[in-house]
Every structure is written in structure tokens, then in C-alpha cells.
Design goal:
- Helix content is 47%, strand content 12%.
- By secondary structure, the protein is α/β, with parallel strands linked by helices.
- A seven-stranded parallel beta sheet has the order 3-4-2-5-10-1-11, with helices on both faces. A seven-stranded parallel beta sheet has the order 14-15-13-16-17-12-18, sandwiched between helices. The protein has a four-stranded antiparallel beta sheet with strand order 6-9-8-7, with helices on both faces.
Amino acid sequence: MTARTEETAGSKVGQEALAVLDAAVAATPGGLTRDGQRRMSEAVAEAIDSGRHLLVQAGTGTGKSLAYLCAALAAGETVVVSTATLALQHQLVAVDLPRLVEAVAPVLGRTPTFALLKGRHNYICKRKMAGEEEEDDGTLEGTEELKWAGRQRSFAKQVQRLFDWANDTDTGDRDDLDPGVSDRAWRQASTTSSECIGVKDCAQGPDCFAEAARARAREADIIVTNHALLSIDMMKERGVLPEHTVLIVDEAHELVDRVTSAARAELTPARLRWLAQRGRRLIDADAADQIREAADSLENALNLVGERRFSGELPGPLTEALHLVNSACVKATTLMGTLDSETRKQLSAQQLKAGIVETVETAGRCVAPSPEDVIWSEPNGPQLVAAPLSVGGLLSAMLYEDRTVIATSATLTLGGKFDTVARGLGLAADQSDWSSLDVGSPFEYRRQGILYVASSLPRPSASGLSEEAGKELLRLVEASRGATLGLFSSKRAAEAAAELLRSHVDYDVLLQGEETLGSLVKRFKEEESTCLLGVMSLWQGVDVPGMTCRLVVMDRIPFPRPNEPLTAARSEAADKAGRSGFTEVSVPAAAIRLAQGAGRLIRRTTDRGVVAILDSRLETSRSYGRFLRDSLPPMWYTTKSDAVAGALSRLAESGSEPS
């Protein structure tokens, strides 16, 4: 125990945190207090007590959610917990917190409260469902029936089911709807924050599901939300989430990407045509035609420039198109100002106003971009996109202001250090206002797993699967007798691997995209010799403990595409500053993805297996090979194919650990 930990454990806040943790663990069936869990709870309690921000790396199986929740409850502060995935959010509010608050009530002398808070569009809009006004695009035309001319019957049934459900649900939360509905159907029943007329002007305001969720959150001890809403809260200068003094960011390795996504803006001809259609009925046919003409001009300009990142001024045709867009939207805004007050309160008018405001802001952002923005065009859509070069400044200014932040994840160290992730999160390099802790893992990685790098393979070149890599993959899968999770850097490589394995082995080979991801993972869990192959969405969040996953194969180091606009712009900026863009941008991104992929193997203390990486650069590269290996769980390392095949064969035969 370190000196700081001893001090914390002896303090009142540290003692209360451990007392709460012990009570929670005692109430957990089969639960045992782990050393890492206790150290983390102590450190979180100390951070809350001192106001010093904290980065905590806690490996899979540590029980980090229980550790930080217990410390938060012991401190008696209002706490927001933000997650990146729906799975963790559900785990917290449906499993961990209900059990926890009951267990710790005798220790605290009260029963803590918690609430779930999401963005407004995640809740049913009662105003829409009440059919108080006609919808321009054929949504709900009344409370008695659905008139959905030209729409598929299944779509109409989904919307009818939403209408029925709206009268039965207590929460209006989309995640409580089982079975779910398509995004398209849900849009007919929900409202975004920009479209909402406000609780005071809405006849359904007193019964609004979103407002009820906000009210519950304001009264709760612990508020569970997501990185998207946390990002919006920061961009709106902390005006969305209830007041709080402690923020816990779980799955913190995802935060930068989620904030970047929230700060991203898109402009598409399709969106402009939708605004024109809505404007024709509400304001003026000539104004609507002007918006449609601007949409045609934008589409022609985007088709002309193709896929491209822009440096400096935009091409002439694109600039002209954006000026037409702006002019048309300004005219529409002027006409909207002449509408009577009741019409302006209509949902259709709110949608038109919100769309026009967003369009004008995005067009202006693209015509005169700030030095912090990256602008590019994409052929799919087509669309014009603006996104921040870096969100470090936003995070530095808004994430840590007037609250203590605890950021935690299984992957916060890269190359064995916190520096890279901390810099991305907007923290000072000198650790003047933050501290760090790696509580390790309950797993004995060197005994439970092998990290194998196929150093004899040629350097990967094409995006598919090379013949040599395919042969090595086949050899490993045959030795393992299936039970393989294949993580590939491209759809083309995954498909090639599936074709190869299906022609040589008798085990079932599942390929992402051929069925829903949920059903594929379910089959993989239940069928011991099955192989599951896929791309990036399988690299994290898949939890398959036991013998059904004893081999994880990654085809290559998952460097981001060098021509991806943000990656290219960030690398270019680093190079211009005299640093290495590849080292600063691409290598850390690959390290996080590799660590997430390797983390699919060891999920329980009884798990055994091999992580195989079919990319020789992990061994041969002097500049980044060791850094990437040091970012992975500390398994026994080898480059010997025969030794690995033998270990897999023994494991498949007897279930013994690889050695």
C-alpha cells in the first residue's frame, strides 16, 4: 500500500468508502473483495475529498463500477456517471445500483437514490402521440388511426405499437420498449431538443416523459447518463445536466471520439430538400423553391469535388452553393418571423426553424472555417462535413470546471503510461491537477494467456487477407478446433477468411453481416467449436467467457486509414509542429484498438487461450512495436508458431492452460 493510500484508508472518507464497499460485496452472491477494487475505491474517495482529478485504469474483472459507486455514495456528493455504451448504462441502472443502494443503506443510514438521464429524443413525445397537429411528412394524422399511404405495412404497425405503448409506459424511454422499433419509426414518436417548443408552451408539458426524467435526475444522488449527453452539456456551457460536484467518466477511452462526434456538423442536399418541403406548406412556395434550388446547386458542387479534404478556401462552385444556401435560409427565417404565435408553436414550425438555424450555422462554419475545424466532402449522401481538429481545448475548459472528474477504463495507459490519454482528455502534462492509478487486474495473464505475433509473415500490404496470413489463420483455427473470434481490419479480409475456413474446416463459421450481431454473438457463446469473424464493432463490448472463445485472432495492426480526414488533418498538424503525426495520432489509436481486441480473450479467472496477431510489424518495428505490445495485457509472449499451435491443441483436448 502506498503512502497516499495509507493516508486515505485512515481518513474518514476512506474508511466510509471501504465500509460501503464491504457492505456491497457482502450482499453480492459469491462476491469477494478484491485488492484492486479496494485500492480503486480508496483512490476515488480521496479524489472526491481533495478535489484532485483522477485517472484510474482497472482491468476487466476488477469490479470498477462497484468501486467508484461505493466511494461516491460514501462521500455524500451529487454524482454524474457517464458511460459510452448502452450495455454498461443498463448494467448500472438495472443491476448494480438497485442491489448496491439496498446493501449500503444500513451503513449510510439512508437509502441513496439514482436516476437515468438521456437526450430528449430517447423519450416518447406525448405531443406527437396526441396528434395535436397535422404532420407534413405522413406521420400521425390523428389519435384514432394511422393514414400511411405508400408506406410499408410493417412500418405502420411499428408506429401503431408506439402509439399504444405511449399510453402504458411509465418512462417513455426507448430502451424500455420490447421488442424495439426501427429508427425511422421512432422518429415519428420522438422530438429533438431543438424541435421542442418547451414545457411551458406545450399542452402535454406536465406529463412530458423527458421532463419527468430531468426532474428525477435533479433529485437523485447518482445520475447515470451517456457520453453524448455529457458532450452536449459541455458545448452548451454546462446547461443540460443537473448541478453536481463529481463526474465519473467510465469507458473514458471513448470520450474524445464521442465529443468529436457531438461537435461534428453535416450539410446535405437531402436535408435541404426536406426543409423545402416543410417550408412550402408553412411559409411560402417561392422561398421553398429557393431552398430546393440551393440543394441542387450544393449537390452538383459536391459531386464535382468528390471525396476530398479542404485546406484554405473551398472551391468556387462549393462556395457559391453555400452562399445560395445561406441566402435561401435567411429569406425563410424572415418569413417565419411573420407567422402568428400559435403557428410558430406548432411542431412542424419548430422543426423547420431548428433545421434552418442548423443549416445556416453549418454553412457559415464551412465557408469561413476556424483554424480548429476540418472540412471535407463525402460522396455518400453526398454531404459536406465540419468537425473539430481537436477537442482537447473544449475538454480542458469545460470537463473539469467546478467539479472533480474521475476517468476510468480498462485501457487508459498506452505503452505503460497515462500521458497520451491524459493529453487527449485535456489534462496538463505535468500532472499539476490530476493523479493516476493502475489497479491492475485480478487475472494472471502470463498463466492464463499467450500473446503470439506471427513475425515470420511478410509485412501486410493489401487490405484483404494475404495467402500467408490465411495459411497461418487456418493452422491456428485447426489447432484450436474452432472456438475462434476473428477480428479483421476490413470487411474484405473478414469475408476472405470466412471463405477460406469454410472450405477447410467442419466447424461453423459465422460472419458479421450475415445475421444480426446479437444473434451471431449468442450462437458463438452457445456453440463451443464455432468461429465468429467480423470487423471493428466486434473489437470491443463482446463478452464471451469460457471455452467457446479460446483463440482471438487479429489480422493486422488496426491503424486508422491515413486518408481519413480527421486522422490526416491531425497528423499533418503534428508534423507541422515538428512532431511525428504517425506516432502522435495513428499509433495511439491502434494501441487502444489492439488492447480492446486482446481484451476479448480473458474475461474470467478460469479463462485460458491465445491472442494471435498476424502482423509481423508488432515484433519487427523498432519505432512502435514495443510500444504497442506494452499496451496489451501482459500475457506470455512468443513468436513461435509451433509452440502456439501445440498449446492450442492441448487446450482444446483437455482444457489445460496454455504453456
